[in-house]
Amino acid sequence: MADVNMLQELTGYLQLTTQRQQLIVSNMANVDNPGYRNEDLDFPSAMHNVVAGGSVRMEPAALEVPGLPERPDGNNVNVDREGLLLSQTQLQYQLGIQLIKAEFHKLLTAIQAGS
Fold it and tell me: pTM score, two decimals?
């Protein structure tokens, strides 16, 4: 049978991947803004909070990514890096969707077995 805690954790996982995707897209949109600093989530820490508390703050803190090369105008967004992160995040989201589908399939199977 589907585990309610697992569904809550997977829902939190999907929320985090969505928020991370929004940050990445924002970084890409600001590639030409002088002084713009690349931002990302501390995804492992935020996911730990989901598992520990079963919920996601609606807006986890976006953190400046340290150590990225900076252009003379102060902008440190690298479109290639962001594109790679965006692809990775989309795959993570798709994985989360598949895991939720599997949990609901378990629930459906349990309901049908009880009929």
Answer: 0.83
